[in-house]
Design brief:
Blueprint lengths: L1 E6 L11 H4 L4 H13 L4 E6 L3 H11 L5 E5 L8 H10 L3 E5 L21 E4 L4 H14 L1
Parallel strand pairs: 1-2, 1-3, 3-4, 4-5
Helix pairs in contact: 2-5, 3-4
The structure holds ligand CA2.
Ligand CA2 binds next to loops.
Length: about 140
Amino acid sequence: MKLLIINGPNLNLLGLREPTIYGDRNYDALVKYVKECADAHGVQTEFFQSNHEGAIVDAIQQAYGRIDGIVINPAAYTHTSVAILDALKAVQIPTVEVHLSKVSEREAFRQISYVSYYAEKTITGMGFEGYKVAVDYLCEKYC
Ligand code: CA2
């Protein structure tokens, strides 16, 4: 089994700004943490971060036939991207959506998630731990 972990725009800046919302650990620490969670299940991981919507669409398309589960934090594209939703629907790979912050308690413009129309599960407000919940869910359901 192989999981693809996708992180959207600005998540490469983790730890540098807004620690009260997103925590003080950086993107490399997130990759290490999620990899350890997957290793505990004996599952392989691939990580992809991009600030570009089309690059995320390409990564989802390239997962077809190769990847068994997707964990995605589309960041700001969560609230705008029909293209990312359509790519997920096209490849039909089991997907869990993760957000570090509790988006339901934030601004009105964050209250829509296009990816939620496809994702099996959405985890918010748990910081890095949310990615573990997502990995555990996919491994337990599809391993
Ligand atoms: O809570 C989340 O994980 C979000 O997906 C994060 C996005 C935001 O647009 C979503 O509404 C909720 C923003 C990620 C920006 O990350 C930064 C990290 C450090 C410094 C500045 C931004």
